[in-house]
Each structure stands twice: as C-alpha cells, then as structure tokens.
C-alpha cells in the first residue's frame, strides 16, 4: 500500500504541533476502535480528519476532549505529555469541541451560554451580568457574529447557535478547536459564513481539527489531512499534495478481511415500485423498483435522506408527492399499520429506542405488529400468539428461559433477535433494514449477513440502508446512492466499486469520475 | 425469573394483611367479614377510579380531572333526577357513562390532536369541570330530600347480601382485567407506555391509544359520579375534592409505573384497598387523622422508592449484559 509511507515522507510543517496524539489505542469489549493512530494539530492550521464511518473519528475526538481514556499511546501538549482524565481537564488545556448537535441551553441567554461554568463574578461572588454581557459582545464581535448576547438561545437558528458554541469555545481561551461535521445542518449561505469564521480562527492562531465527509469543503479550508481507516492510521500530509482520488483511495483501500455469504441471487418479479417520492425538506424525486429475492443497498453519507425516505415509505411521515406500486397495485401508505398490512416492514437503526419494548415479555414483543392476525374482534388469542412467537424465535435461534421473560432482561444480541423476529412474524414481502450491523461486533455481523442472504433466497425483497462500504458492496445486488435527498446513482455489477460509490456519495466532481 | 410485578403484589398483599392483623389486635370487630365487606364497599369508588387512572398511566399520561369529572357527572345526574324523578335508573346510568366518556374524550382530544402534555390538559379541565358544576347548580346543593328513592336506592340494592356499589366495583375489576390482559387494545396500552417510539413502528397509533385511555378513565369516573352522589345522597361543587390524589396514590402504591407500560389490575386493586383500610381502620383504633395522612403519605413514598429501586437494579443488569453481549446474534 503506497500511502502508508506518506507519513514519513511528508514535509515537516511550519512549527511544531501544539497537540500531538501518538500511537493512541482504544479497546472496547470485542472491538479495537483505535489501533495506534497518530494525529497532530498545528497552530493556525486546519487539519481535516477523513475516514469512513467506523474509522475511529468520533473515538479520537472523545479522547481528545477527555470523554474517553486511551488504552495506549501518548498525548503531547506543546511537546509535554499530558492526560485528560475528564472533560474539564481537556477544557483547561484549551481543547474544545463543537459537536454535531451543539450542546447548549435553549432557555438561557446567549451570554449565559457562552459563560456557563466560568462566568465573571463580582467581588461578592455573585454573577457579574454587566461584565458577562460586555465580554460576550466582544467575543461575538470578534468572530463577526451579529447576535445580541441578551436574547435567549431558543430564538436563534442553527447557524447562529453554532456561532454561540464557537464563542463559548473562544471564551475559555481555546487553543485547539474540534469541529465535528459543523456544516451538516447548515444552509449554503451559513456554510460560507462558517468558512470565513474558520479563517478568522486560523488567523488567531487556533489549531483546528475539522471532521467532514464533504470533499469540496475539505479541499477548500483544510491545510492538512489525516486519514484513518478501520481504527488505523493511514496517512497524513499537506492537502495541496494530494488529489481527491488519492484521499478516496486512502479511505477505502482496505484489505478485505470480512467474508460475505456467497449468493447466487434469483430475481423474481417486481414487487415494489416507488415513483416520484418527495418530501418538503428531506428528499425529492425518489424512483426505483425492487424485485423478489433481491438485496438492494442504499448508500450515502449520514444525512443523505435515506432513513427519512424509508420512514416516509412506511408511513411514519407523509411524502408530499409520489406513489408506490406493490405487486402491480397502486397503494397509498398513510401509517405504519398500513405498511405492515401491505407487507412492507422497517427495522429501524436505533433498535434500542425504536425497537423492543423492554418491559414486555418476549412473546408480546414478537406479536405486537401481528396482533391483527392473532386477535379476533379485538380479543387476543394467546395460544396463537405463543405459537407465532415460538416459531419465529426458534427460527432466529433465540435462547431464553421462557417466552414470558421480559425483553429487558435479555442480552443486547438477543434483544436484536426479538426485534427481527417481530418483523418476520408479520410475513412481509419487503423488509427494510436500516444499518443492520451498526454497533455490533464482527462475529454478529456475519450472522446478520447470513440471515439476510437466507431471507433473499426465500424470495423476500430486502432493502439495506448502510453507511458501511464493505457491507454495501458485499451484500447488495444493486446499490442506490443518495446525496442531499436525491438519488445520484444506481449501480450494479462491475460498476459497484468503492471508488464509484464514495465519489457519488460525496459528490466529487463528475468529470473527474467519468 | 419471577416478574417483579408478582413479588410486588405479594408484598402488598402481605402489607395489607399485617395492617389488618395490627388493627385486629386493637379492635377485633374490624376484621369481621361483614365489616370487611363494608370497607370494600366504601373503597369501591376509589377502585373504579383507580382502574381508569391505571389505564391512563399505562400510556404514560395522567388524568388529574377524574374527581372533577365524577363531581360534574354526579351533579348532572342529581339535577336530572330533580326534574325527572321517575326516570328508570338504566337511563341515569347511561347518562353518567356517556357524560363521563365525553369529558374523558375532551382530555384525550387535547392530548392526541393538540399534543398538550396530559398533566396540563387535565389540570385545566379539572378546574373547568368544577366551574361548570358551579354554573349549572348555581352553587346550590342537591340534598337527599330532593332525590327520588329510586335514585338513591341503586347503590344500596343488595344481591347475595352485597350492595350494588360493590358489585359495580367487582364488575369494573373484571372488565378492566379482560381489557388489559385479553384485548389488543389493552396490549397497545402497555406498548405505548413502554416505548412510544417502538409502538409507532409496530403500527400502533400512539395518540389514538392515549385518547381511548382517557375515554375509558372518563367513563369510569362518570359511573363513579352517579354512584357517589346517590350513595351519599348529596351533590355540590366540591364533592370528592382532592380525591384525584388518592386515585393516583392507589395506582402508585399498587405498582403502576408512573413512566408507563407497567403494572397490573390486581396490584391496583390492592393499592386502593390498602388506602381504603387505612382510611377506615385508623379512626376505629383511635389514631388521629394526622397519622392517617402521614401513613398514607409514607405508603406512597415507600411504594415509589420500591419502584425506583427495582427500576435501577433492572437497568444495571441490562447495562452489564449489553456491555458483555458479544456472543453472535
């Protein structure tokens, strides 16, 4: 792999790093999240951290900000070893993060948000409101934000909240500012204002770690890049020495150690056609067809509108336009109950929150979406319920003392089985799996993949929403790529390469891709 | 594994038994079957309201307007009786159920369609219902002599030596038990309170389910309204004032999780009986009303503490298992 040498070959940057992480390791039970990664941040420079989902970007941010403790490696602040046992220690050392969902308080004023926890005091130890307002105003002005420090945060838009978060970072004299996908929720204009702000912070000598999936902005504002892949350090260097193609190659060029089930898909008749689905804010112009026995992958960056579309397809939210044809009949799906009746089921990504009802016994969880079939005139047929629950829990090889056991007392893996059994028990035609292997270890992933292959072989149509490239490539017969709420590509066969998918998902110059 | 709910009920039944034994040592007559039947009869209204409240609490809501609903429905029944004294009781009962259901539907509508927090909605309607009683009654009382014998006889009518009021409670217990454990609507109540997000995905309309819970609670409050007014043979603005707190207390003591999705009919009945026994027993063993309140209050706190502790213990087990759950799915 040629890029592994990039690190040693890179030109030494001007000056020494203000903060350097060397050989950082982080192990979670069963998973090595970080395996000896390096990251260096230089004053007055923007370092872009790039990598796929699961590369370890969030983990390193959490180590940087004192939320996680590394299991190995060294953190150097201005060349001296330092540890961040708590978030306060990291803040005291001048490291501050602006998160994807900014953590601020809606009901407090802008000035209070900026100074919460380190507000100026009067001699009596009371809050010095005048100083707080004055200083807040000064900081806001310094970053060119036209915000009244006296208004409540709730009255501001997302972009302004970001500015407040940044002001807060500056108020604690930050030397290192971590921006984790700061533009994900911003409009075009707001993004440009953010870029200007980043320039201002650079000019003030702050070291900035910029995490983004968007290549255009990385090349626009970053001075340096660092690439992680699967928890390992791949390369770092100056951004003007690499091309987009180089970065993509570094991100995806993996040794394929994951084995996917061998399938010879036998595609049946068309079972689902989606025509012109649109939503006022989340997605538009979604068209595709799905056949029996097919696994259709939906790839895209987080926020590309995939889950939002799926939720609309099953009637959780209403599309503003569009129609579905199920086995040749045009149908309108207005509620999840109707989707279940039509045989379309959705296994949500957040299985903890949206999946099992933990206080309920296993059998009641399994039969919940099928109650229409296991009840007569509104009265439950407990014997039928038990039979149905037994059939599907056995099929998923769920071992539990009794079907009366509350789901909350099962292990995480078994809870997942209950959730999947619940949906299969409805005897669906189409099953939508949203990030089916997110957050589970390699062994469990393989079992889920086997199972998906089995379902497809039985003639079920499977839609798999996934942000993990190997999974998308290894499992799908066909892949639809979404970006910013639209389908930007539909690829199959030999076209299904990591490079193609990443390029489409990130929206890298089309002429470049052609 | 024994579900905690069961041990909680056993514990409660045991506490009730201890309470009865303690009272019996001071005043043996209290545990005579006829007196226990009288205590049950006296607790009937509480049981009926608590079972309605239980369903609402199951769906992660709360209904603070039950006592006001009871008072308003009772007043309307009493006023109707003054103008049509010979109306068959079945009509009065029908009116009480329908009016109670309507008042419950008002609560449910605000929660479902306008998405207002249940505590706010029912706090508002609680005051509004009392205000309506004042308007329709002009602040006057409807007294025993204004009520027809037929009207006041119903709750006292005995079958097998047990008054109709008690039979009503028994019937409600049976109906709510069947509803909660044997119907798909009952299952939805648990699902909605247990995990509203998950319930939506399984095709349950959360708002509609909560609406129906309020309608049921209102219907039972309406029934209790007629029974209350006819039993005590008086109707005025403030009857059952503050009784909603006893109702919620009975649910909490009976093991209903205030966060929804857990509890049992048996537990709620025991919770109501526990309060009923305290209320009836303490005066006869000559304990001051202050202690009654203190004991009721302590029972609530102990019950909630038990709930909280069981919840925490469960949470820890799940966490521990989830952290080490890396066997293949």
From TrEMBL, chain A:
Annotated InterPro entries: AAA+_ATPase, ABC_carbohydrate_import_ATPase, ABC_transporter-like_ATP-bd, ABC_transporter-like_CS, P-loop_NTPase
User: Which Pfam families does this entry report, sorted A to Z?
Assistant: ABC_tran
Q: How does it sit in the membrane?
A: Peripheral membrane protein
SMART domains xrefs: AAA (SM00382)
- In its keyword annotation, does this UniProt entry include Cell membrane? yes
ABC transporter domain residues are 19-255, 267-509
In alphabetical order, the GO MF annotations are:
ATP binding; ATP hydrolysis activity
Q: Where is this chain's protein located in or outside the cell?
A: Cell membrane
Q: Which UniProt keywords apply?
A: ATP-binding, Cell membrane, Membrane, Nucleotide-binding, Repeat, Sugar transport, Translocase, Transport
Its cellular-component GO annotations read: plasma membrane
What superkingdom heads the lineage? Bacteria
Q: What is this protein called?
A: ATP-binding cassette domain-containing protein
Q: Which organism is it from?
A: Pseudooceanicola spongiae
Automatic annotation (TrEMBL), chain B:
Does the UniProt entry include the keyword Protease? no
Localisation: Cell membrane
CDD domains found in the cross-reference section: TM_PBP1_transp_AraH_like
Q: Which GO terms describe its molecular function?
A: transmembrane transporter activity
Among InterPro entries, the record links this protein to: ABC_transp_permease
GO cellular component terms, alphabetically, are:
plasma membrane
Transmembrane among the record's keywords? yes
Please classify the protein's predominant subcellular localization into one broad category: membrane
Keywords from UniProt, A to Z, are: Cell membrane, Membrane, Transmembrane, Transmembrane helix
Q: Which residues cross the membrane?
A: 36-57, 64-83, 89-112, 119-137, 157-180, 211-229, 235-258, 290-308
What membrane topology term does the record carry?
Answer: Multi-pass membrane protein
**PANTHER family with a match to the protein in the record:** ABC TRANSPORTER PERMEASE PROTEIN YPHD-RELATED-RELATED (PTHR32196), RIBOSE IMPORT PERMEASE PROTEIN RBSC (PTHR32196:SF72)
State the name under which the record lists this protein.
ABC transporter permease
């Amino acid at each position: 792999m040629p890029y592994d040498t990039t690190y040693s070959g890179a030109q030494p940057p001007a000056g020494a790093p203000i903060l350097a992480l060397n050989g950082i390791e982080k192990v979670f039970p069963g998973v090595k999240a970080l395996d000896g990664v390096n990251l260096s941040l230089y004053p007055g420079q923007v370092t872009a951290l790039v990598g796929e989902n699961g590369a370890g970007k969030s983990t390193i941010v959490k180590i940087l900000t004192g939320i996680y403790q590394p299991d190995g490696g060294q953190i150097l602040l201005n060349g001296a070893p330092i540890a961040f046992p708590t978030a306060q220690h990291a803040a005291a050392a001048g490291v501050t993060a602006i998160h994807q969902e900014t953590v601020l308080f809606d009901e407090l004023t802008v000035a209070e948000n900026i100074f919460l926890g380190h507000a100026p005091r009067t001699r009596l130890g009371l809050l010095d409101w005048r100083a707080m307002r004055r200083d807040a105003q000064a900081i806001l002005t310094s970053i060119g934000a036209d915000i009244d420090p006296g208004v409540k945060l709730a009255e501001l838009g997302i972009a302004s909240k970001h500015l407040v978060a940044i002001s807060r970072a500056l108020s604690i004299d930050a030397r290192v500012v971590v921006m984790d996908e700061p533009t994900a929720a911003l409009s075009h204009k707001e993004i440009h204002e953010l870029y200007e702000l980043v320039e201002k912070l650079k000019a003030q000598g702050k070291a900035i770690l910029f995490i983004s999936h968007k290549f255009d902005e990385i090349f626009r504002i970053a001075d340096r890049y660092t690439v992680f892949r699967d928890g390992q350090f791949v390369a770092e260097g100056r951004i003007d020495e690499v091309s987009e193609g180089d970065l993509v190659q570094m991100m995806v060029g993996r040794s394929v150690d994951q084995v996917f089930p061998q399938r010879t898909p036998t595609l049946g008749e068309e079972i689902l056609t989606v025509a012109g689905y649109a939503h006022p804010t989340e997605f538009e112009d979604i068209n595709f067809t799905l056949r029996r026995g097919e696994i259709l992958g939906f790839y895209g960056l987080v926020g590309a509108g995939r889950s939002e579309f799926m939720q609309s397809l099953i009637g959780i939210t209403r599309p503003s336009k569009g129609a579905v044809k199920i086995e040749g009949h045009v149908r309108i799906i207005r509620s999840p109950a109707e989707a279940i009746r039509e045989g379309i089921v959705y296994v949500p990504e957040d299985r903890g929150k949206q999946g099992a009802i933990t206080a309920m016994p296993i059998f009641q969880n399994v039969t919940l979406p099928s109650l229409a079939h296991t009840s007569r005139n509104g009265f439950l047929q407990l014997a039928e319920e038990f039979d149905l629950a037994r059939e599907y829990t056995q099929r998923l090889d769920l071992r539990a003392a009794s079907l009366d056991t509350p789901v909350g007392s099962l292990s995480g893996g078994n809870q997942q089985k209950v959730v999947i059994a619940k949906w299969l028990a409805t005897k669906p035609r189409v099953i939508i799996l949203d990030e089916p292997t997110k957050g589970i270890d390699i062994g469990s992933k393989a079992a889920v993949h086997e199972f998906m292959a089995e379902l497809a072989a039985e003639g079920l149509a499977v839609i798999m929403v996934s942000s993990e490239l190997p999974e998308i490539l290894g499992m799908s017969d066909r892949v639809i790529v979404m970006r910013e709420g639209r389908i930007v590509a539909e690829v199959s066969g030999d076209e299904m390469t990591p490079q193609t998918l990443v390029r489409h998902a990130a929206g890298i110059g089309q002429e470049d891709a052609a | 594994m024994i579900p905690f709910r069961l041990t909680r009920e056993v514990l409660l039944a045991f506490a009730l038994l201890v309470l009865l034994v303690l009272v019996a040592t001071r005043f043996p007559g209290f545990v005579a079957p006829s007196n226990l039947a009288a205590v049950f009869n006296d607790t009937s209204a509480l049981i009926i309201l608590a079972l309605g409240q239980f369903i609402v609490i199951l769906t992660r809501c709360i209904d603070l307007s039950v006592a006001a609903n009871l008072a308003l429905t009772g007043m309307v029944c009493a006023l109707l009786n003054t103008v049509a004294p010979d109306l068959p009781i079945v009509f009065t009962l029908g009116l009480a159920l329908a009016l109670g259901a309507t008042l419950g539907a008002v609560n449910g509508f605000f929660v479902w369609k306008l998405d207002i927090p249940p505590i706010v909605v029912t706090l508002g309607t609680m005051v509004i219902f009392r205000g309506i009683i004042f308007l329709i009654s002009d602040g006057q009382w409807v007294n025993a002599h204004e009520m027809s014998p037929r009207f006041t006889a119903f709750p006292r009518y005995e079958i097998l030596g047990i008054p109709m009021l008690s039979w009503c409670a028994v019937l409600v217990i049976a109906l709510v038990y069947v509803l909660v454990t044997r119907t798909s609507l009952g299952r939805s109540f648990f699902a909605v309170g247990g995990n509203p997000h998950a319930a939506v995905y399984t095709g349950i309309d959360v708002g509609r389910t909560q609406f129906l819970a309020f309608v049921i609670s209102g219907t039972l409050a309406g029934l209790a309204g007629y029974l209350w007014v006819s039993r005590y043979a008086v109707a005025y603005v403030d009857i059952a004032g503050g009784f909603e707190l006893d109702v919620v207390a009975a649910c909490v003591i009976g093991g209903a999780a205030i966060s929804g999705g857990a509890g049992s009919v048996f537990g709620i009945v025991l919770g109501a009986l526990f309060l009923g026994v305290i209320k009836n027993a303490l005066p006869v063993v000559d304990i001051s009303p202050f202690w009654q309140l203190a004991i009721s209050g302590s029972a609530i706190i102990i019950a909630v503490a038990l709930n909280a502790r069981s919840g925490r213990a469960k949470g820890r087990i799940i966490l521990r298992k989830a952290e080490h759950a890396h066997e293949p799915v």
